[in-house]
Structures are given as structure tokens and as C-alpha cells.
Design brief:
Chain B: This is Pyruvate ferredoxin oxidoreductase beta subunit. The structure holds 2 protein chains of 2 kinds. By secondary structure, chain A is an alpha/beta fold. Chain A has 18 helices and 20 strands. An 8-stranded mixed β-sheet of chain B has the order 2-1-3-4-6-5-7-8, sandwiched between helices. In chain B, strands 9-10 form a two-stranded antiparallel ribbon. Chain B is globular and about 60 Å long. The chains are: A alpha/beta, B alpha/beta.
Chain lengths: 562, 389
């Protein structure tokens, strides 16, 4: 007689015949939200998604996830003002994920290990497409078209590709070997690069359009805006971008005893720091924007990479926020100083914000030189008719289409509403997608998921963890050539990636599976085809909503069930 | 991915041809329940679900799985000792608690269940949600029946673990002497008390486990009293005073901790006891979606200390990282609603409950000194790919 080791056994639960799903009025569904970092990224990267691959222990997959969207992660990881970190939901809890440092870490790993770009679905009929301007926007567009199989010709006026990345970003922020490695990898996809090629007149553009089925224009902005103070201009003044480019090309900047830089962008701050290191005793920066702080609205903060601003203050740059130059103090044609006045951007009668200067707040600042850094316009040479006298191109949509010219697409700084390399990279990618569809006779489709608000997270399931900051060179060790911010050590990078809350995407944490009183969550990787590991068993789900409440990342929502 | 209706419809005929096996527990309803046996689920699965068609909303694939659902349910990587289809209310903490206890206990157990919600909602005649041998006799004698089962198994040389389940009514009040006897006779039984702090099954009457100041139908809040006048009985200390090898409290909000305690108690040869705090949305008056949140707050405020006692010595506690004020816990429940009125007694009773929580924290040394992976905030921290248990 067989001996049972167990005392007895029972038949399966017969209550399965009773379908408690009939009780339900609400049902749980998976909802894949966009994490705020994704919504905020001008390039369109989904940081949450690549951080997830990183958390799973697959850095190469993480990098490939970035590379589908952005072919220059080692560059953007270094120079981007990272609006993703500003938007990060973890800000409300302790401090945001150091996304830029992790992006850079992955980008560096890709260069170090010579990872190649992930494949893309090719097209049936490759077409010839021209890209004007080899800055981040042009490179991004050329990359996306080339990996789809199109024949891309990339032209640029300068001898080397990179645009402002090469000509205007100091080596202290972006080492050139990193730039060369990432650009080289793009050009290796079979892109024909023609340097020293400038569109001289409109016939050039017409010829380009004849020879190619579509043209992407990313010429950037090369013409400094006209600057004067009440009609006055010092005879020897030169715009900041020009001086910065000259410094990067030749290593020389003027060194007066004191200088005033007028403007509040990255160019102004970069030049200020370069001049300070070159020996200028007093570097003043006069800007209408404010420094981050309680009396500055978020939209009014200096448009500078936050850590660069912090480093500039460390290095002794003197900021005059919420100020403008009202009058130049001249002795003949020589500058003696300026008269500054406080101002704020305030809504007027129509509700639109404009700058209001406050009488009685005038102050005098003595200096030997004033440098305007108020921005640039598109150099109209070759595009006169297209621009029609406007300072920038005004494309109709996010794809960069120009009304009346179905084969022309515009992106990057030339749009006038961009201003970051990441924005240009996003433009390039979107234009490439639109071009690819245009060549196939199709329309691009706008896809956007709603962004997950912080209060949809269940923070009981997370723990505070300090943000890992990358090492920074002390002020006294900073030079004109060495990179100031270092890489995160490997272990720190992994720990930092693990801080990601996975906003709006399944963490596979098993909470829904664990906490369903009715066994109505089924764990399965094969059948769950929505990026999660679970399906709901609606035959038994009573709709209590516990899974939705206990989902840490807001991935489960309750909806009406009819 | 979706099964064709043809494939799915095969299930019933296959199931029907299979003779029902009903070698089952002693439970009164098991015979007729067993007659439906395995065939029950697949028989009803395809007709409704295939008709419902392929799920449209993202993540609603289960709709389209049809006949595969039954197979998927079987393939779950955990022991489903308490099956779906039971009649517990939406968001029932006790059903969840029992499910988690059964998962951790595994299939080689037998259960004696006292009268109470758990007994009623799992075994409506002729069905049973249990996948282990299970018996219900009376309200007061779960421990006595379990003692007998254990003695019989021992006599026949089986090592199957016997568990006794009861609510707070049958454990703190009605079945208390039987429990005490079982502990005194050192039967090898794990007794799990599902503590939802009142007689929920019969209509929310106060028990000796009902916390001070909670309103029930027999301790209503009004001009004479602010809910229950007396204190919650400290049952765990009474159990521990029997010098049992293991007596612990746990909360459904901390599943990993609960599973560990069940496994530990099952391994021990001798009488062991687990007091499991399980919110009742109906009796406590809260949204069923907040069951876990409320259970967690009970622990984090100190009102329900999660501790382990071995031979009447404190062997371990779940430290509280940052104690929450008791009002965070109270204000989510209608049974404490009267504590938030203008009545001067409301404030007094709130302070009283806060003092009780502080007393628990002091008595059991619940305050963590530094962040700990097993404290009230670390114990349920999630990682990609699952809990660190």
C-alpha cells in the first residue's frame, strides 16, 4: 500500500465556479504614463525607460534605448541643461535623479567599448536626402535617415562637423575626443559629409532641392543680433559668441581689467568664465533674468545649465540679475562704465509680459569693456526668400514643415524657439521621421502619453536615498582644457540608476500580485504584452482598487466598468 | 495571441469527460463542492470571455486569453491555498491575510477554522475556496478540533502541520479557553488569529479586541460614550505567558514579514501563535482600496506593534522609522469619526489613543535608532523585479 507522506490532500478550490467579477463597478487597467523626465526632454528621450534597462543590469540596452532617440548621449550628458532633472518626480521626495551624469556614463561606456548603434527598420526605397548644417540637429537628422537606409548628404560651411558643439562649447564642458567619437560613429553609417560648403545664394538651395527628394535645414544662428544702448555703441565692441569661438579656435581672449557681459545665456556664462580664467580681475554679468531663488519665478531663471551657474559663482563671476543696461558711460569713443537699472518681466494691460524698468534703482558700474551676449539670428544668406526678412524660420509644426514647401524641413536653433543641443537633436529626429513618412506618401502622427503627477506614486514603497553627485574639480585646479565635471564611478552610477521611481511604468515589483485579496492578478511575462508582468483576471476581480492604490509607480488606474 | 474560440471551447467537453475526484477534506460542503472539481473553472471560462472578445484597453489581455486563463492560474509561481471566487467584501484584509498565510504555509497543512467571516465567505455551500483539507465545527472550538487533528496525525505517523484559524471574536473571546488548553497541552499547531477588531460577520459587535474608542454597533458613539469604553485586550502577552516557543504579531501591510513569520512558526515543533492585523473596510468604515494603507498606518503609529515573542521573551520587533501621529490612522476610518467632532471628549480620546500608541512604542522599544532595511519603511521597499524578502 502506498504511503502518503502528506496527511491528506484536497480537491482544487471549487469556489472558482463563482465568478466574483460580476460584483465589479470599477476595474483596474494598466496605464503607461510618460514619466515627467520624458515629457521634459527636448530631444524626446524617455529617461525612465533607459534607467529601467540600467536597473535591470543591462547598460548596453540602456544606451541603445537612448541611441534610438539621441545619437550623442556622451555630448548631451555633459552639456544639456537637463530639464529632465528639473521635472523629475523625485524632486518632491528628496532630490532628482542625476540623469545627466548617467547619460554621460552610458555614452562614455559606448565610446570605451565601441558599441555600435542599434538597428532600425530600413525602407523599401532609399531616397536621396540633403541635410544643411552639421550641428546637433543636422547630425541627428542625418543619423535617423541613414539608419533607415536613406542616402544622406550632409553639408556644412565649416571644415569639421559639430556646429556650435565644436565652435562654441569650451573644452572644460565638452572634451573634443568625446565629440569626435560620437560624430565619427554617426558619419560611419555611410553619410556623405561635405565640409566647406555654404549655400551662397538661392540657386544653391534650388539645386539642392532638385538633386534630393527632401532637404532638412539646420543652419543654426550665425548672425549676432544688433545691439545698442539708446543708439550708442562702443566702436570696438564685439559679440560674445564671436569672442568665444575665437577663443576656442585660437586660445585667445581680450583681457581688460574689468568687463561687463550683457546677457544671460550659456554663451554669456561660458565667456565670463573663460575671461576670468584668462586673468580679467572683474567679470560682471548683467542679465534681465533672475538667479534661482525664492524671488524668481521658475520661468524667469537664467537659461544656463544649473551646475554651470553654480560653478561660475564659485569661480567669482559677479552676477547682476534682474538688471539691464540703461546708458553707456563713454569718454569719446572709450567706454568708462554703464548705468544699470532694475527690471522685472511683468504682465501688462493685455496680460502679456514685458520688461518694466524701475525708476530710482539706477546704479553705475565701471568697466573697461562691454560685451553683448543677447543672442543671434539666422544668417539669411541663401535663404532670403524663405525667411522673408524674419530673424528665424517659423515652421508650422513640431516636424519642422514649412508651409508651401512639402520637401523642406527646418530644425534646431534656426527655429528660434529652441536654444539647446537637445532641442536640435529632437528636431532632427522628428524631421527625419516626417521625411521618411513624406517619402512614403504618409503623414506623421503625433503621439504623446500623459505625464504622471507625483501624487499618483505610492511613496510608501520607496526609501530616501542621497543623490550621487559626480566629482567636480576644485576652483583652483580648473584650467581651460581639463573637463571640470568628472564621471560617476561605476558603482555610484548603478546606485544612482536604482533611485529612479519608474514613474508610470511597471516596476515588476509584484505588489499588485501580492496584495490582491482575490487572486485576480496573474503573473505572466509571455501574456502581458504591455510592458508589465501581469494581467488582470477580470473573472474574479471585484474592483476593490487595492492594486491601484498599492502600485508604487502609478501604473494601475481604476476605470468605470460597464 | 488570442485563442480561437474552437480551441477555447474544447475545454468544457474535456473537463466533462473527466470523472470528478472528490477525495477531500472533512468539510461538510466539500463532497458536493468536489463534484464540480477541476472542471468548474474551464467550463465557464470560454463562453463568457471569448464572447467578450479581444481586450481593447492596454493591459487587458486577460480578456482575450479565454481558455488559457485556467492554465495561467494553475501556473502561478505560488501556492494558491485560498482560491478566488470566495465571497469576501471588496478590499477584505482578512481574505488577503488568509491568502498570504496559505501561500507561505504551502500545501502540506490542514486547517481547522472557527466560525467567522473567514469560514463563511470561503465556504458557501456547495463550494470551497480552500485547496487544503479544511474543517469548520463551531465558533469556540477551533483550537480543540486542531488539537484532535494533530493528535490523530501524530498517531498515524504523518507530519502534516495543523493550523487553526479564527477571528478575533473566536480567539480573544469565545474560543479563548480552548486555545489556552491547546497551548498548555503543547500541541504542534500554528494558531493564526485574523484580528479585524470586532464581530464583523454578525454585524460589527465589539469584541475584546476592539480598540478603545472605536464605534461598533454595540459600542456606539453618542452622548453617553465615545465608542468602546474598554481597552483592547493584550492577547499576545497572554499567549506568551503560556511559555510557548513562538508568538508573534504581523500585519497584512508587510507581506514579506508575514510570510517569514508563518514559515518560522510552521518549522517550530510545538504550539505557535500569530496575531495578524487585518483591516475590515465594512466594519472600520473605510474605502476598500485603502486596506493596506490603513494596516500600514496602524503599525507606523505604534497602535499595532509588530513583535515576536519566544518563550515569553521579546525576540524581535519591526522598528518604526518615523512614528506617525495616530490621527493619521484614525481619520481614515468611520469607526473613529466621532473623534474628530467639536466634542471636548473627542480630543481627550484622541490624546488617549496617542498615549496608548506611545506606550506601545516605549514598552516594546519600537523606535528605530537609524534606518533599517527591516523597519516600517524599509520592509516594503520595492525593487525592479520584486521585493527584497
Amino acid at each position: 500500500m502506498p504511503v502518503l507522506t502528506r496527511g491528506a490532500y484536497a480537491e482544487p478550490g471549487t469556489s472558482l465556479a463563482f465568478k466574483t467579477g460580476d460584483w465589479r463597478t470599477m476595474r483596474p487597467v494598466h496605464k503607461h504614463w510618460a514619466a515627467p523626465c520624458h515629457g521634459a526632454c527636448p530631444a524626446g528621450e524617455d529617461a525612465q525607460e533607459w534607467l529601467a534597462r540600467f536597473q535591470e543590469g543591462h547598460p548596453r540596452e540602456a544606451w541603445e534605448t537612448i541611441a534610438h532617440i539621441n545619437p550623442l548621449p556622451a555630448v548631451t550628458g555633459r552639456i544639456c541643461p537637463h530639464p529632465c532633472e528639473t521635472a523629475c518626480n523625485r524632486t518632491h521626495y528628496d532630490s532628482p535623479i542625476a540623469i545627466h551624469a548617467l547619460e554621460r556614463w552610458l555614452g562614455d561606456q559606448a565610446i570605451l567599448n565601441n558599441w555600435s548603434f542599434p538597428g532600425a527598420q530600413g525602407v523599401a526605397e532609399p531616397a536621396a536626402v540633403a541635410v544643411v548644417g552639421a550641428g546637433p540637429g543636422g547630425l541627428s537628422c542625418a543619423y535617423q535617415l541613414a539608419r533607415r537606409g536613406h542616402k544622406v548628404t550632409l553639408i556644412d560651411a565649416l571644415p569639421e562637423p559639430g556646429g556650435l558643439l565644436r565652435s562654441a562649447i569650451p573644452m572644460t564642458r565638452l572634451p573634443r575626443d568625446v565629440l569626435d567619437a560620437e560624430i565619427g560613429r554617426i558619419l560611419d553609417l555611410g553619410i556623405t559629409f561635405k565640409p566647406h560648403t555654404r549655400l551662397g545664394d538661392e540657386a544653391d538651395l534650388a539645386r539642392l532641392r532638385q538633386e534630393h527628394r527632401a532637404v532638412f535645414l539646420a543652419p543654426g544662428i550665425g548672425l549676432a543680433k544688433n545691439w545698442s544702448v539708446g543708439g550708442q555703441v562702443p566702436t570696438d565692441h564685439r559679440p560674445a559668441l564671436e569672442l568665444l569661438k575665437e577663443f576656442i579656435a585660437h586660445g585667445k581672449v581680450p583681457t581688460p581689467a574689468s568687463v561687463i557681459i550683457h546677457g544671460g545665456g550659456n554663451t554669456a556664462v561660458d565667456l565670463a568664465r573663460v575671461m576670468k580664467r584668462a586673468g580679467v580681475a572683474e567679470v560682471h554679468l548683467v542679465t534681465a533674468s533672475g538667479l534661482p531663488g525664492p524671488d524668481t519665478e521658475p520661468g524667469d531663471i537664467l537659461n544656463v545649465v544649473p551646475r554651470e551657474l553654480h560653478e561660475a559663482i564659485e569661480e567669482g563671476i559677479i552676477f547682476h540679475p534682474h538688471r539691464t543696461i540703461q546708458r553707456l558711460l563713454m569718454r569719446g569713443s572709450k567706454l568708462m562704465g554703464i548705468e544699470m537699472v532694475s527690471l522685472r518681466k511683468l504682465p501688462g494691460a493685455s496680460g502679456r509680459k514685458s520688461r518694466v524698468a524701475f525708476e530710482g534703482t539706477e546704479t553705475i558700474l565701471h568697466a573697461d569693456m562691454v560685451i553683448p551676449a543677447i543672442g543671434e539670428n539666422v544668417d539669411p544668406t541663401g535663404f532670403e526668400a524663405l525667411l522673408g526678412g524674419a530673424p528665424y524660420f517659423r515652421p508650422a509644426d513640431e516636424w519642422g514643415r514649412l508651409p508651401g514647401h512639402p520637401d523642406l524641413f527646418v530644425g534646431g536653433d534656426a527655429r528660434g524657439d529652441r536654444g539647446t543641443a537637445a532641442g536640435a537633436i529632437g528636431d532632427g529626429r522628428k524631421a527625419a521621421e516626417a521625411i521618411d513618412l513624406f517619402l512614403a506618401g504618409q503623414e506623421p502622427v503625433h503621439q504623446r502619453r500623459p505625464t504622471l503627477p507625483y501624487d499618483h506614486l505610492n511613496m510608501a514603497y520607496y526609501e530616501p536615498a542621497p543623490r550621487r553627485e559626480p566629482p567636480v574639480l576644485p576652483v583652483e585646479q580648473r584650467t581651460d582644457s581639463d573637463e571640470i565635471e568628472g564621471p560617476l564611478p561605476d558603482a555610484e552610477a548603478r546606485a544612482e540608476a536604482n533611485r529612479c521611481l519608474s514613474c508610470g511604468s511597471c516596476l515588476a515589483c509584484d505588489n499588485c500580485w501580492t496584495y490582491c485579496p482575490d487572486n485576480a492578478v496573474i503573473k505572466t511575462i509571455e501574456q502581458a504584452q504591455d510592458g508589465s508582468h501581469y494581467v488582470f483576471d477580470y473573472e474574479y476581480c471585484k474592483g476593490c482598487g487595492m492594486c491601484a492604490t498599492e502600485c508604487p509607480c502609478g501604473y494601475i488606474v481604476m476605470e468605470e466598468d460597464h | 495571441m488570442a485563442k480561437t474560440p474552437e480551441t477555447a471551447k474544447k475545454a468544457p467537453s474535456k473537463a466533462a469527460s473527466k470523472p470528478a475526484k472528490a477525495k477531500t477534506a472533512k468539510a461538510g460542503d466539500a463532497k458536493s463542492g468536489g463534484a464540480k472539481g477541476k472542471s468548474a473553472a474551464p467550463a465557464e471560462t470560454p463562453s463568457r470571455k471569448v464572447a467578450a472578445g479581444v481586450g481593447t484597453a492596454p493591459g487587458v489581455d486577460a480578456q482575450a486569453l479565454g481558455g488559457e486563463l485556467a492554465e495561467l492560474r494553475r501556473r502561478q509561481p505560488r501556492f494558491r491555498g485560498l482560491e478566488a471566487g470566495h465571497r469576501a467584501c471588496q478590499g477584505c484584509g482578512e481574505a488577503l491575510g488568509a491568502r498570504l498565510v496559505m501561500e507561505a504555509a504551502g500545501p502540506d497543512v490542514m486547517v481547522a477554522n472557527a466560525t467567522g467571516c473567514l469560514e463563511v465567505f470561503t465556504t458557501p455551500w456547495p463550494q470551497s475556496a480552500w485547496r487544503v483539507p479544511w474543517i469548520h465545527s463551531l465558533f469556540e472550538n477551533a483550537a480543540a478540533v486542531a488539537s484532535g487533528m494533530e493528535a490523530a496525525l501524530k498517531a498515524r505517523g504523518h507530519r502534516t502541520k495543523v493550523m487553526a484559524f479564527g477571528g478575533d471574536g473566536s480567539t480573544f473571546d469565545i474560543g479563548f479557553q480552548a486555545l489556552s488548553g491547546m497551548l498548555e497541552r503543547t500541541h504542534n499547531v500554528l494558531y493564526v488569529c485574523f484580528d479585524n477588531e470586532a464581530y464583523m460577520n454578525t454585524g460589527i459587535q465589539r469584541s475584546s479586541s476592539t480598540p478603545h474608542a472605536a464605534a461598533t454597533t454595540t459600542s456606539p458613539a453618542g452622548s453617553q460614550r465615545m465608542g468602546k469604553r474598554h481597552l483592547k485586550k493584550d492577547l499576545l502577552q497572554i499567549i506568551a505567558a503560556h511559555h510557548v516557543p513562538y508568538a508573534a504579531s504581523a500585519s497584512v501591510a508587510y507581506a514579506a514579514d508575514l510570510r517569514r513569520k508563518v514559515r518560522r512558526a510552521i518549522e517550530i515543533e510545538g504550539p505557535t501563535f500569530l496575531l495578524l492585523h487585518v483591516p475590515c473596510p465594512l466594519g472600520w468604515g473605510h474605502d476598500g482600496a485603502k486596506t493596506i494603507e490603513i494596516a500600514r498606518l496602524a503599525v507606523q503609529t505604534g497602535l499595532f506593534p509588530v513583535v515576536e515573542l519566544e518563550r515569553n521573551e521579546l525576540a524581535g520587533v519591526m522598528p518604526i522609522r518615523q512614528p506617525r501621529p495616530v490621527s493619521d490612522y484614525l481619520k481614515l476610518q468611520n469607526r473613529f469619526r466621532h473623534l474628530f467632532g467639536n466634542d471636548h471628549r473627542a480630543r481627550q480620546e484622541r490624546e488617549h489613543l496617542q498615549a496608548l500608541a506611545d506606550h506601545n512604542i516605549a514598552t516594546y522599544h519600537l523606535l528605530g535608532e537609524e534606518p533599517d532595511p527591516l523597519d516600517t519603511e524599509g520592509a516594503d521597499t520595492v525593487r525592479r523585479g520584486g521585493l527584497i524578502a
